[in-house]
Structure to design on (505 residues):
């Protein structure tokens, strides 16, 4: 009897030791999860950048056949700016009302109603819960929503970053942090939530109180709210913040990190980078006119690009990673700002910077574990103003051409420019591109099919957008399912079995 038991245990041990290497082989590295958000990018924003760079639409790398592609709804729970106390959805997306000129070209048109703001949309992406506009990880029942993807990532041992081309305490980077606030406008409190918790390891963006939108030094009128107040700003810049932050500001510091020189960390375990510019890296610099061409206004020379920030953040996170992987949110935040202002040339510039950041991430992934160990999601949080061709007479609208972009923005005196249908957020479907570990999980989450989509976006349809749409909350569903994987639990389980077997033997 004893011998029989021993044989059985030995057999089990043999099986276990045989299985373990197989499991381990598919889990040699922990999964990295990277979410990239081009804020406020209607289809026209993606089209315009690709037309400018490639001469044709649907040419960016994420249109490749290896990518999962879905349309996505972005509407909030309701359009209140404060909690209303009910979890009943008040708005939605109805494909039967979304198409046709009336939906587009008046401020009362269907797609101009019920849009999300970046706070509610960011919260939905980061927590899987819809809420009122203005909420930063805050529910319509007036309570914090937890966990956010960064909180979940940190609980699973990952290192966590959030970076943006606008103020780092702005709605999208804040939603992808451990900040929880009833209003996105409480910037100082949000910044301090991000700095004082134990979740964030890397924060980067604009919002520097000491600089103008042109990157020149301010001598008066400094506004410290985006960086947590004057006292906190002073602590950061004297390396005395109690939460061990290393603060950087200069372009050369961002570039050093992007080039792999991490000596500036000097033993610090957290890094906050606040570029030397007020609100956006480039979009809010002076000199814009509606007849500008792309890159016609000189760039601010003293700030990093989103690409540089992206590489810097990846290098720091990789340096801090203890083997459980990284979570990083990267926002092209000023795409939205250019859209609000109907700035065609700057929309293209901002989307190009975002696309370059995507390319940098793709390259990084292919050199750091490959797609089986990384999940990359590229999307936007909502549409904005639906930039399109110059004609208002084609239903539902004419697509942007390269000639439109060269002409700038449509005005009565500039009739060949890109036409903008509003200066506000819109409720049309938006694209989502996903590739890597777990990207196939979106397939189970499709909510419906917009059967008109391919009539107007046949080029997008040809690249795999077949009208199926998911919801923005599904980004949380998929990313949160991937964050604890691959197979950490399974390995621990097998490890326990082995230990048990060995003990009994
Ligand atoms: Zn937004």
């Amino acid at each position: 009897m004893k011998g029989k038991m021993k044989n059985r245990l030995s057999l089990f041990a043999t099986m276990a030791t045989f299985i373990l290497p197989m499991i381990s082989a598919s889990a040699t590295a922990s999964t990295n999860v990277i979410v990239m958000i081009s804020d406020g990018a209607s289809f026209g924003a993606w089209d315009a950048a690709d037309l400018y760079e490639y001469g044709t639409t649907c040419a960016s790398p994420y249109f490749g056949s290896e990518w999962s592609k879905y349309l996505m709804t972005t509407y909030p729970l309701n359009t209140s700016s404060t909690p209303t106390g009910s979890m009943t959805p008040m708005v939605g997306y109805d494909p039967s009302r979304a198409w046709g000129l009336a939906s587009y070209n008046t401020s009362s048109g269907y797609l101009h109603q019920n849009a999300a703001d970046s706070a509610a949309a960011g919260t939905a992406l980061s927590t899987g819960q819809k809420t009122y506009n203005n909420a930063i990880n805050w529910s319509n029942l007036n309570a914090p929503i937890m966990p956010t993807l960064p909180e979940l990532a940190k609980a699973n041992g990952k290192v966590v970053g959030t970076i943006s081309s606008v103020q780092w305490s702005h709605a999208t980077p804040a939603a992808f942090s451990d900040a929880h606030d009833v209003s996105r406008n409480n910037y100082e409190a949000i910044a301090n939530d991000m700095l004082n918790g134990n979740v964030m390891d890397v924060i980067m963006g604009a919002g520097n109180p000491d600089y103008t939108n042109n990157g020149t030094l301010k001598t008066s009128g400094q506004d410290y709210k985006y960086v947590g107040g004057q006292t906190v700003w002073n602590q950061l810049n004297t390396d005395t913040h109690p939460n061990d932050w290393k603060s950087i500001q200069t372009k050369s510091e961002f570039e050093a990190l992007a080039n792999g020189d991490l000596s500036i960390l000097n033993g610090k375990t957290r890094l906050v980078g606040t570029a030397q510019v007020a609100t956006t890296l480039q979009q809010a610099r002076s000199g814009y006119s509606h007849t500008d061409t792309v890159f016609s206004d000189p760039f601010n020379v003293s700030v990093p690009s989103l690409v540089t920030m992206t590489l810097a953040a990846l290098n720091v996170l990789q340096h801090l990673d203890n083997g459980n992987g990284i979570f990083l949110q990267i926002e092209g935040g000023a795409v939205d700002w250019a859209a609000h202002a109907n700035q065609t040339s700057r929309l293209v510039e901002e989307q190009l910077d975002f696309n370059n950041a995507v390319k940098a991430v793709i390259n990084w992934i292919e050199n750091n574990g490959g797609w089986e160990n990384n999940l990359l999601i590229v999307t936007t949080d909502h549409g904005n103003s639906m930039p399109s061709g110059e004609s208002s007479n084609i239903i539902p609208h004419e697509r942007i051409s390269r000639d439109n972009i060269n002409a700038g923005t449509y005005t009565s005196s500039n009739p060949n420019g890109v036409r903008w249908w509003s200066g506000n957020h819109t409720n049309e479907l938006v694209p989502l591109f996903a590739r890597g570990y777990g990207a196939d999980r979106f397939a189970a989450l499709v909510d419906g099919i917009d059967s008109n989509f391919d009539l107007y976006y046949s080029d997008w349809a040809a690249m795999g957008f077949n009208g199926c749409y998911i919801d923005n909350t599904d980004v949380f569903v998929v990313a949160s399912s991937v964050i604890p994987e691959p197979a950490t639990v399974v390995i621990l389980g097998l490890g326990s079995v082995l230990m048990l077997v060995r003990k009994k033997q």
